[in-house]
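Protein modeling request. Please complete all fields; requests missing the sequence field cannot be processed.
Requester role: graduate student
Desired output: 3D structure, token encoding
Chains: 1
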Amino acid sequence: MWFARAALAAILAAGAARGGGPGTTAAPVLRVAAGARPEALGGAYAAVADDLNALFWNPAGLAGLTSVEVGAMYTAWFAGTGFQVLGGAAPAGRAGTVAGAGSLMDYGSVPRTTATADGLYGGVSGRASAMDAFATVGWGRRVAALPHFGEIAVGVSGQVLSQRLAGTGRTGGGVSAGALLRLPLRGVSVGLVADHLGAVGGGGGPLPFEGRGGVAWETAISSRARALWAADAGFSPDAGTTVHAGGELNLFEVVALRGGWRGAGAAVAGPTWGLGLVVPRGWLGPPVAMRLDYAGGAAGELGLTHRLQLVARFSPPSAGRPHGFKVAREGSKRALSWSGGRGPYDVTIRSASDRTVVWAADRPLGEPKLLLPDLAPGAYLVAIRPAVAGSTGWRREPGGEVKLTIPAPPPKPVAAAPAPVAPPLAAPGGVALEYVDGANWLKWQGGGPAWTVLMRPAAEDRVAPVPGDPLTEPRFHLPRLAPGIYYFVIRSVDPGDPSRRPADSPETEVVFKARAR
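Delivered output (517 residues):
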């Protein structure tokens, strides 16, 4: 075991002093995967990069973090060596997201050998320790969100490396840069990375530079299961072409099953596998969510590797949650707007009665506003959730929900049928005074069906009805009146239909003389 450990330390710590060609770059420890989830996906992480591990795989992915994350990883590597990583990341508002980590590859204690003057083996003289330590800092930020091209993020990271073997040491440094494009196609992203541009001083040689590109696709299988597929391809002067592929199945937002393959050209080729368990926010207290990831890998005669990583996410319960919903008219449609959260947004509308989905946006919305589709009258639940691509590694960011009621359209007013208009009454005519059987009578023709009599003395200006019920016959017995001149008007009325307009005859003059004594 000590011989294998010594050989591994020599290969990793001092391989690059001989010029170009395979195996000649310095600090190949930088090729050792940092992060259990990326390793379980076979190293296909350039386009996934949505958590703290983005610091090592594609710093542009740091731009997608909306909460503080801290994590620790331990790797049981080949020949009894151990690899540890401790790091954290925090959003910095409009400035983007910053992250940092410290890593240590401990090769343990190996026998120190000596050589004779002629270069032959001279025996063992005590023991020597060997280790590689490096610090990484990074930054990522969204730079554009274009409706037809998607969201673009960029990021950079830097490494400072220290190698120690048998009491000697070297230091070096390098930078990495990446870009991440979240396409308008739901769940599809593309990543590009230029890794480890730098060198180790003291004749150590260049760092293991690699240019990589990857694509990832996340999709929902059902309401309780989502899947992620990813593939990367890269090239480096040291290792040539590399190919990586992996997949992840997320169940109930709690359990993730992973598998992958480190293909041709990888530093350690072979299958990988892993498991992720998420402790959702609220189980450990409102502001904390945790994820425990395991990854295993096989590399033929070199044996197996095992990685265990714990990542915690800290955020208040309302972080990223849309709120302040408002509905307003925009032309002929209604628009729903809100505050809070971080776009783009996924929008789903469900029936409030049975919670079945009646409408879902075909792509994430870039702004906090939705023109509501045409919906039947009723009650609905509109769910707004930040569309975090590649979110299978975490329970999704909290969303907001608002109840919306679509009222039934008001009934169209029905024009009331016009009320029938009764024909006006005819005015009486032919009014005349007759003396019959010792009495004076007024008689007339037409009008009716009933009549009233109005009388006006010559000295007055207005007529007044003569007391009594309406007459049903066209005649009126004149009462005994004081001597003088009187004017009479015969008015047609209809007692059965008061809405009919009365009609009056012309005035008829009647003279009452004083009686002779």
